[in-house]
Amino acid sequence: MASPICEVTRTIKSVAEMLSSGRLTYPRCRHRAEELLKLLEDVSWGRGGAEHYTAMETLARTLVDEGPDEACVEAGSTVLSALHDHREVFASHIETHICPTGECVKLAPAPCQIACPAGIDVPSYVTLIGLGRDAEAVELIREDNPFPWVCGLVCTNPCEFMCVRGRMDKPISIKYLKGFAAERAMSEMRYKNPSKAPDNGRKVCIIGAGPAGMTAAYYLALKGYRVTIIEALPVPGGMMMVGIPRYRLPREVIDREAGAIEELGVEFRYNTKLGQDVTFEELRREGFEAFLIAVGAHDAYKLMVPGEEDYPQVIDAIGFLRRVALGDRHAPGKKVAVVGGGNVAIDAARTCIRLGCESVTIVYRRTRSEMPAHEEEVTQAEEEGVNLVFLTVPVAVKGDQDGITGLQCLRAELGQPDEKGRRRPVPIEGSEHLLEVDAVISAIGQTVDNVGLTDLEDLKWSKRNTIATNTVTMETSVAGVFAAGDVVSGPATVVEAIGGGKKAAEAIDRYLHGIPQPQMPPVPVRRRRLECIEMPASTKMSLTRPEMPFLNTDRRRITFQQVELGYPENAVREEARRCLRCDICRRCGRCVEICRDMMGVNALQLGYLDFDHPVPTDLRSTAERCIACGACAANCPNEAMIVRDQDGERCVMLCGTVLNRLKLEYCQQCGVPVGPARYHDYITKRIKSVGPTAGDLTLCVACARKLAAERHSEISPPASTRKPAD
Q1: 305 shares a domain with 294
Q2: Distance of alpha carbon 39 from alpha carbon 295, whole angstroms
Q3: Residue where a domain stops, chosen among 392, 410, 444
């Protein structure tokens, strides 16, 4: 599959080729093309500012309008076409300082940031946490995500799946670092909102106070809009509040971060359901000019088995978790079966344990390895006493006049893969059996409650009962109406909803200002390029990912107290220092090639650089062979590899990790530093076959040339003293 091509790089190559070919013969034309090339290279190397686009357009237009020959016109037209046809690409390079293709070396993105649905600058905030600057890290996170504390506890951490450190040992614990920094900043009263723009008098209504709705409200409020959120529940948070149990996400965390949004002037109208308490038409009469639908997916799918509708003890997991979150702490039964294998099923089962159910069994139709629930959640559930039954398919709910007596099931085996590639469970004939329970909780999926949304006659829906949108702008088929979160994606994650809310806020702002909408997905923004944390290679290699301390199991079974207790501060600082700073090192392998193929030293054994086939890496081994020649640093395109003389030593560093330190030697004639002895031995060995050396003397280049000139004059006397030839 061909690699994506960066239009900025393509344009640079076109202009550079025209200059090197000699086709631009007129001096003025050539000078303008050289100026254009400088501006293009500024954009490619992260030095571009807001004025660069206009300056490039003006220069290119001048070449077209005033060019004395076809070559000048062609050069200008090439740049003009690129600027106009790919305006968003150039603007994105200037504004975000990221090149999604990685061709613009300085702007190559870190894999963790690209993987984050909210586009957070992960390497920068991890570095800030490593430096102990927690409040500054939270401030940076909130430029892209207004819920750092929430996500520090319940994010599905896709960033960690792409973490390059995971190719060496284990990924950086990015999620927990974020949670620590947010909690510390909140505790120290340093969790502050950024300054907001002046009130612009324009009103936006958001339906749903979940992560998508509140994220959009946050960014719109910062832009000066008057934002009102309509929420059917009596509390903010949406599914974060009523779908995620308190032992994973304490209510206080949501309250504090929602409170920060309210401080920006966002109005919350609770216990207000669209279509029941208020309509779109009524909201329009209030002066709202744009709407965001972010109602989530709060309805549950039915089991569709006989007996399901006959007993009140058959309940859905979403409704069950909502009631518990709002204060109903009654156990659904003594012996409970939870049907499903996702995170909601796990949450329901663990909640039942805490409510005092005598036995809780999860019934799943596939195998453990195919459960969509997170492995750590499954493990914790088992620790707390939840039973798991696999390859079992419910076929009926049995009971009598007193209630449920059991869940009739069939054993199954895996057959052919379904449309998603997962193997279908096939019931085994004659394997019917009864699971004795007195309550059944269904957790097989969620869907959107579209009550109130049907008032929008032109609103288009997908086959999955989600609102159809432009995925780049979150625009619906109705002008001025946008949608984000689970109502668009179906049941997804908190961080995905946050990413959708952020995109929607930007699109709403463009819509209300009459600015054309983008045609390509937003590119994450590189917020900083911080100095690397310096440490020896031995430390970098010996640091290990800390284990999360948990509340003891007995306590977990009887309370909704938070299970994960968090890292201690010293573990947080050390964990942040494990980061390889992939925002600087783009893992191109150029340093390895130079050291191995050009210098013949082969000191850099960086096996993790090979994405598809990583081999063991030990940064400490570099010191065994490295001669500190500096060739790796001289050829590093992004200043990840650095060679620096300090305190009488020459240090070779990769993103702050000191790979080698060698004592410097000094010129015995003039006293300037000339490098370590190992490097001199290498040079001496290489030039012995070429000509005379300085012997045992250690000389700088200038003094060595002077000595060579003196020796040459001794061997060859001046022409005036030579005897004429016979």
Answers
A1: no
A2: 46
A3: 444
